[in-house]
Each structure stands twice: as C-alpha cells, then as structure tokens.
Amino acid sequence: MKKPRVFTLATLSMLAGVGVPAVAQEKPNVIVVIADDLGYGDVSAYGGALKTPNFDRLANSGLRFTRGYAASATSSPSRYALLTGVYPWRKNVNILPGDSPLIIPTDKPTIATMFQKCGYRTCAIGKWHLGLGRGNSNWNRKISPGPQEIGFDHSFIMAATNDRVPCVYFSDGYVVNRDPADPISVSYRKNFPGEPTGKTHPHLLKQQPAPNHGHADSIVNGISRIGFMKGGEKARWVDEEMAAVFAGEAHAFIRANKNRPLFMYYALHQPHVPRVPNAKFAGKSGLGPRGDAILEADAQVGELLDLLEAEKLDKNTLIVFTSDNGPVLNDGYADLAEELAAEKNYRPSGALRGGKYSLFEGGTRVPFIVSWQGRVAPGVSDVPVAQLDLFASLASLVGGNVPVEADSENHLDVLLGKNKTQGRKNFVVEATGRLAYREGDFLYIPARPKLPSVAWLTKIENGNAKQDALYNVADDPAQQKNLAETLPEKLRQMRDAYLDATDMPVQPLFRSRKF
Fold first, then answer.
1. Are strands 223-224 and 219-220 parallel, antiparallel or unpaired?
2. Count of CB atoms within 10 A of residue 283's CB?
3. CA–CA dist 358, 273 (Å, integer)
4. pLDDT band for position 158 (50/70/90)?
5. Which of 13-17, 49-53, 395-399, 471-475 has the lowest mean pLDDT?
6. Bridge partners of 333?
7. The pLDDT of residue 17
8. Sign of dihedral through CA atoms 80, 84, 89, 93?
9. Domains of the chain
10. Whether residue 372 has pLDDT greater than 60
C-alpha cells in the first residue's frame, strides 16, 4: 500500500505563514501531549514496571502530579472538556462514532481560539474524536466545520480512533491522498456490497491483533474496524507508520513556526486499540502489542524533546503530558494484553482501582506532568489538578480570556509549582454518562443498583453498586474501604454537594438504614 505523502511545499509554506515576518517570542510555546488510554501505572515515573525513559525525562525535568485527573473515563468527553473548559456531561457528550458531526459549537470559545487571540499559531495533530462536519459528510470534499473552525490554524488528524472508519488522515479538512477516481464512502449502519469484513473474511486478517468483540467490520491494513468503509485505497493509513506520520507533521509545524509563539495539541494514538506499533518496537516490551505501543509513544515524546532542544526552544516551551482516561487491556482485539499482564503481574492502573469506563480512580486519575525548563522546578505534587482547568490556567499564563460559562478554573500557580497546598477544591468526573463527585480527599459515587458492575467485556469494575460509596482516596487510593456507613454525616454532605453541583438524581440514602 502506498505510503501517504504528507509534506508538500504548499503545506510547509502554509504552516510557516508565508508573508508574516518573524517576530521575537515574548510568550512561551505551549504543547499539550495527550496519550490515549495510558494508565497511571503505565509510566515508570509513576511506579510502573514498564520502563518509559522519555516520559520519565519529562517527569524528571518538571512537576509530576500524583493526583491529576481527566474529566471523563472515556475519550470524546475528556477531550471536549480539555478544549472547551466545560464539563462534558453538561452537553451529554459521550463516545462518538467515526462519522459524528463536530460536537464543539463554532461560535463558542475554545483553548485554541484563546491562544489565537493571544497571537499564537495553533495546530492539532493526531487523534481527534470530536466529530467533523455537520453529519452525513462527503469525505471526498473538504469536511467543515472541523478544527479550523474552532481555533486551529492547522490540523493533521484522524477523524475518530484508530479502530473506527474512516481510516484516513485529514489535513485541514481534506483527506490526504484522496483520489477522485476512488471515492470514499462510510457507513455505521450496513456494509457496502462485496466489501470484506472481519466477520465474513477472517482469512484476510493479520494474525494479531484479531477482533474478539465489536471490531469485525471493514478491513483496513489487515485489521477489521468498527464501521464500514469503501474506496480511498491510496488514502488509507498504514498503522505501523502512524506514529512517524503524526510526528513528522508535529515537527514540521514546530520548525515552520519556531520564530513565533505556538500552541500545539498533540494527541498520540497509543496505546488505543488496535495496537500495531512499528517493527522497531514490536516485541520489545515483553507485554505484547500494548506494551510495545507504549514504548513507541514514549519514543515519540523523546523525539519531540530532542527537536525542541535542537531548535533551542526547550527553555521557552511549557509541556503538559497526560492521558485522556485510564487504561484498558481487552478493548476489542485479542492481542494478549490481558494474558501477558496477568503473567507478569503488570497493573496498568498501578495501585488504583478500575480503569477506562470506570468511576473508580483508575478511570480518571492519569499521568499528569508539567515541564518548563527554568520556570517549573522539578519535583512531585500531591495537589489535585484537572485537565478541565488547563483552559483557564493557560489563559492566565498568556493573557487570554475565559468564557464566563466555563467550568475551568485558574490554577496556574499549582501547575507551575508555586502552590503545593491547595488546588481545585471539588469537581465532577464522568464515565459513560454516570457521574461521581470529588471534594478534597473524598470521592462519592452514587448508587446505581440496576446497572452492571463490570464494563462490557473489559472486566473493569465501573463503579456501579447497590449502595452509595464514599472513599478517602488520599488514605486509600486502591478504594478498598467504603466509608459510607462509618461516616454517615460525611456521606450526607458529599451527596448534597453532588446534587448541588450536578442537579442529577440519585438513589435514596441506604433505604435499609436510618441516620
């Protein structure tokens, strides 16, 4: 299959902003690197068994937060919160299909529009999963609205996830390497006549990873996906080359804009399924494709840091490294992630309970590192921080504005290590439409007796239970002690605060007990 031709002179000229004179930088570059399904225990700086030297390189040069949180335990909602500064549950944001329309209103401020107004060149690279167009998109024309309409000067993205169609790259709204003679069609309802799928043509699949639930539709690059796709043969991505393609675009943007302040949203696709790392990483982790994909992501971060040093931008660049949600082992492909983790006693959530899809700590408590040479002293902070607050905090850093309706709070002093005692006092976390409430050291999870306690086939506890749960996550990060019965007044206070914050219904408090 033909490798996508990513770079052209026209593209590089556009990235550089031809005709705009270079100006001396007065504001720091800001790069947010967000991994996909990377767990608290997947980074060696957080005690993980898998060695991740470049993630650790960031941690050793910056501030490693032990209580950093995504707004959601799944991808689309957490990314929505980061870019808009608004809780995703307020807008009923959930995991999006690959053909979803853009879910961020083009007339609402985003972190990207904020940076634009402050004189920054902005770009989005990698995984998007926030929708494109207005629905029923014609993938053979420019897809709009998209990243450009919500503040990004340049974008090079996948529409959704690497396990969903369409399996092509988009550069500023256009499919890369599109061929008018081979138009692209996408459906999430039914297959196109004669097109092979993982269910009907399993012999066309690569040996690993094979689908084991929910991923047996169209085959691209020997891997079956979610949804159906026809055409676009020259434009289809090659999974093994994806990291290099995204890295190349990110590096090109940095080089082209090194003489002016830039903001980059760099969304890695690893270790989301299907995990198909380049051959140089395959078999290196001892944990199968998932571990190998983490090593590949680690190398991407190392290449980014090397580039910033080579271009003498390292001392004027603030980097935030985090993950969109907690980890998952079996998420649709039989790639031995579960078996190898069990064999080696590997825990991607570390000591935390739960993972992706979960209201337990493992669902939203993720790696969170802030590095800025000379400005952020290396160290560790136990102050709670939230991705939701990046909008307001970074706006404070560069002199931007935050919409009054945003839930984002300014905690710049915490991110820069100037305040190591008090961060956000309370916030709401979400997992597939279910909410929980954090305040200080306590987490309250409302009872949901009619819902299953395990997320689909992932074997991950999702936090649903017959009775309300109350945990002190500072003393008990593994959440083994439900304090609801022993601290009834604290439970009542947390429940009332949850109702005030969310206006969401909950079950009556312990129907069998009286307080």
1. antiparallel
2. 11
3. 18
4. very high
5. 13-17
6. 211
7. 42
8. negative
9. 26-175+236-415 (3.40.720.10), 426-502 (3.30.1120.10)
10. yes
